[in-house]
Specification:
The chain is mainly α and 314 residues long. Helices cover 79% and strands 0% of the residues. The radius of gyration is 20 Å and the shape is globular. The two termini are 18 Å apart.
Length: 314
């Protein structure tokens, strides 16, 4: 088959899968709001950051758990995951707010202290809810303490650090956080499953950092995308390497879920490369054509990445 036909076939199938995925996940997101609306304070659901975490859980986290653990997620597991997702940005704010008082005026400091107390109250409520509704409480406490230590290390590294230190922290934060999410959903990963969850968690963290690159630069937070701001080609190469690492783990997935796993990684690659193209082409003002260019760029990157990964695998 010629390269042109192969590319066209891939694009046709991928676009169909993409829209199917988006429609199903959009319906699941609506369902998610109905699941949690009676369990959490309503003011939390008004926050854009928290809503984005709800979308991440329904779009990315719950599907991959169903693939890895070869088990359909039940309603109570989705609820636990959503509560954990809502708690995550509040947890991050604890560390962020404590280190930034010097940047505010006296009136702003008072507001921040009030906000932090409210966050503390909300977080303890959510944390207690999770602990009361999960099976593996001891494993949860152990894993939660790991994540707290990693987050503390990340906040300490505000000064200039090497790219390898940034990678190590990103791997630890993303990987251990995804394992914690799995425990919240009443999955107790084996060592093999932890390996792939760590790889995927790092990939999720990388995608998050690509989306947050502008705000991270303002806050002086060191991430892989902020480090490679002036070297976009190296960032693409790093993203490609991470995709190949994950694809190489496909053999540990149950046989009947391997195809779903590969399709899922294609979608993740597409969303990551879509934001990369936005970051690179942000200065170009072409309206609809600019967005079409983003889409084509991401589609082409996904196709080439998959083709190379399959070549390596074979």
């Amino acid at each position: 088959m010629s390269k042109q036909k192969s590319w066209f076939l891939f694009c046709s199938i991928f676009i169909y899968k993409l829209f199917t995925f988006l429609i199903i996940r959009l319906l699941n997101t609506v369902r998610a709001y109905f699941i949690i609306i009676r369990s959490v304070p309503l003011h939390l659901l008004r926050s854009g950051r928290i809503r984005s975490y709800i979308h991440k859980i329904t779009f990315f986290v719950s599907p991959i758990f169903e693939i890895i653990f070869n088990n359909r997620i039940k309603l109570y597991q989705i609820k636990n995951l959503l509560i954990a997702g809502i708690a995550t940005p509040i947890f991050d704010d604890f560390f962020d707010t404590e280190n930034k008082y010097s940047e505010f005026t006296n009136a702003q400091v008072i507001n921040k202290i009030y906000e932090m107390k409210q966050n503390q109250k909300d977080f303890h409520f959510l944390l207690q809810f999770i602990i009361n509704h999960i099976k593996f409480k001891i494993d949860f406490n152990t894993q939660y303490n790991k994540v707290v230590k990693i987050q503390s290390l990340c906040e300490q590294q505000r000064e200039s650090i090497s790219i390898q230190e940034i990678i190590n922290l990103s791997e630890a934060k993303g990987g251990e956080s995804l394992i914690l999410y799995a425990i919240c959903a009443d999955f107790l990963p084996s060592e093999i499953e932890k390996t792939i969850l760590k790889q995927l968690g790092y990939f999720f963290q990388l995608i998050d950092d690509i989306y947050d690159v502008t705000s991270d630069k303002i806050k002086n937070i060191h991430t892989i995308p902020t480090y490679y701001t002036t070297k976009p080609l190296l960032l693409k190469l790093h993203l490609f390497r991470q995709v190949t690492n994950i694809i190489s783990q496909a053999d540990i997935i149950q046989f009947n879920k391997k195809k779903d796993f590969i399709d899922y990684i294609d979608l993740l690659t597409f969303f990551a490369s879509l934001q990369l193209s936005r970051n690179e082409l942000n200065s170009i003002k072409l309206g609809f054509l600019k967005h079409l260019r983003y889409f084509c760029y991401a589609l082409n990157f996904t196709y080439r990445t998959k083709a190379i990964c399959l070549t390596f695998k074979n």
